[in-house]
Amino acid sequence: MNNLQYTKYLFDNVKKISFADPGVIRDTYGRGENLTHKFLIKELKNFTKNIIIDFGGNFLATYEGKSKKKIVIGSHLDSQKHGGNFDGLAGVIMGIIVIKFFYEKKITPKNSIAVMGIRGEESCWFPYSYIGSKIALGQFDKKLLHSLKRSDTNKSLYYHIKKAGFNADKVSNNETNFDISNFKYFIEPHIEQGPVLEKKKIPLGIVTGIRGSFRYRDAFCKGDYLHSGATPFDYRKDSVVAVSMLVNEMNIYWKKQLKKNKDLVITFGQFFTDKKEHSFAKSSGLVNFCVDVRSSSNKILEIANKTLIKKIKLIEKKTNTKFYLGKQTNSQPALMDKKLIKIFQKYSKERSIKFEIMASGAGHDASVFANYGIPSIMLFIRNKNGSHNPKEYMSIKQFFEGYKVLCGAIENNYI
Ligand SMILES: [Zn+2]
What we know:
CATH architecture of the largest domain: 3-Layer(aba) Sandwich
Order of helices and strands: HHEEEHEHHHHEHEEEHEEEHEEEHEHEH
Number of helices: 13
Strand content: 15-25%
Largest sheet: 9 strands, mixed
CATH class of the largest domain: Alpha Beta
CATH topology of the largest domain: Aminopeptidase
Distance between the termini: 28 Å
Number of domains: 2
Radius of gyration: 24 Å
Helix content: 25-40%
Bound molecules: zinc ion
Shape: globular
CATH superfamily of the largest domain: Zn peptidases
Structural class: alpha+beta
Number of strands: 16
């Protein structure tokens, strides 16, 4: 099979294996993810015998170059529940096609090239992101092995790792059998999950950083349930008004930051009143909501958090309400490697391939490798209809635009 036919064959077969109308289900340490790993490992055996599976079930297939140092091309193979076929999978398949190219041309590259298939990136199965990449680097917090429960089975991560046939005890001891000291670069090709490349008709995104975040998942505002007709303005304690004011104020703040070229995204959601107590004839005494704030800079996140709290205090006074933000969760921003950004920019320019320099709004495994200290980069592939849904669509043509840059840069010793 030529590269195009083989790429289609890989995408189609994984889709078939993990099909769950509508879309696909590749559940972390479950049937869909296990079968996908098994199938791709079998395919990789056509091109290399050097395939290692780590204690948490990630695979690393290496095509040896002149140097032991590796360019690791990888992404995750789990999916959302009824997600799309391309999220994660596209990056692993691109790595396989790169290895196939070198194998068939009988070229020994300067650096070794490795493909990594990563477990458990999505946080919909266990309420935690990047499980597989943290395990691969021997960095998984062992307490979480027992405390994290899978959303559908309510069984622990420890249980599921064992059930899938891997060594949860070694994961618990932070052991890894990957030769991490030889990881020279980590490259994650991935579909773009927003609309930018598709809208601008640009085939390639070169990613500068992955946004980190802080979140209040269970915030609420308390006021008082008061008669809607009989309570004058000054006597109200309306939590709908209070939270709406906060949303509006933070939206204005966000726009101001964008004008100053600050990288920031603010989203409020799960905005609801208490169904049991609230009705149209009362002002609302309770609104539950969540807020998700993202940026590629820790400093900007810190200031945004302070601003949020300051605005809440003012609104509480104005509306006679009280906000409770609850537990904060966060993730660290990660910067992509400047040298790699320049290299891919240069190579794309020389080949007249259009690209967009952009930050990644979504979290990715590359952030774990970058924060570990391995120079990392993401290449975004143009994709239609967003992501995390069955309609996500990356054409094979767009896939090969990204492939041309990645494989070409390696073949021509740019990296
Ligand atoms: Zn993904």
